[in-house]
Amino acid sequence: LLVMMSDSMREYFESKFPFAARSKMVMFPMVPDLGPYRAPRPLLQGKPVVVYAGGLQKWQQTSKMVDAIIRTAAVCRHRVYCPEPRRIRVLLPAALSGTVTVETLGHAELVKAYRDCHYGFVLREESIINRVACPAKLVEYLAMGIVPIVDSDEIGDFKSLGMASISLEAFLLGRLPEEDERMAMVERNFVVHERLKEVWASGATRIRAFFHPGR
Predict the structure, then answer these.
(1) CA torsion angle for 107, 126, 48, 141 (degrees, to 10)?
(2) Helix axes 136-143, 179-211, angle to 10 degrees
(3) Is residue 23's pLDDT more than 80?
(4) CA gap 122, 43 in Å, rounded
(5) What is the mean pLDDT of residues 23-40?
(6) How far apart are the first and last CA of the chain?
(7) Model-level pTM greater than 0.90?
């Protein structure tokens, strides 16, 4: 039984490994049980709130994110939730220490914090790893009504499912949608999230049947 995070992963395995096409495959994306969260979220002192939640591994492009935070600090409020806040704080200018939130939160607290956020960083370079991925963080953003800011939108099946996002280039140029347009993007992403939940539920049923046939 081959358990795949995305249809993109299935396509990759079938192209690279001849045995894969003859194997039983199950789609089982990472889909946290959240949302859809539609409550209004006002601007904070007239500025949208941009969040990053996750680790600081190389593929998260931390330095690129910090550069984006510095360049947009005058027009956005930024919040970074990560396991090692010190690694982010040392990269920020002292002038931003009081305006950029950098801290560690438990998951329940993080979900509450999401309710105030309008956009979220998911900066992944275009690579085979990212083209087959299904980041739980990105699924959480969609469920909580947070529009992703992406470096590349070639992440797993999200693009093919119709995910609405903002490019990093557009974000740095200040090309953000009005709130009614942003909410239309949010609703579009709720449909993507619902589709992922359906795939997850079907995969869970098939995995149980594989290990417990006849039940």
Answers:
(1) -30
(2) 130
(3) yes
(4) 21
(5) 91
(6) 18
(7) yes
Q: Using CA atoms, how far apart are residues 166 and 150, in angstroms rounded to an integer?
A: 6
Phi and psi at residue 56, to the nearest 5° = -120, 30
> pLDDT tens digits for 173-193?
999 999 999 999 999 999 999
What's the CA gap between 198 and 201, in Å, rounded? Answer: 5
Whether the per-residue pLDDT at 105 is higher than 80: the answer is yes
CA distance 72 to 138: 21
At residue 48's C-alpha, the angle toward residues 47 and 53, to 5°, is: 135
The answer for residues whose C-beta is within 8 angstroms of residue 117's C-beta and 6 or more apart is 41, 49, 50, 51, 79, 144, 146
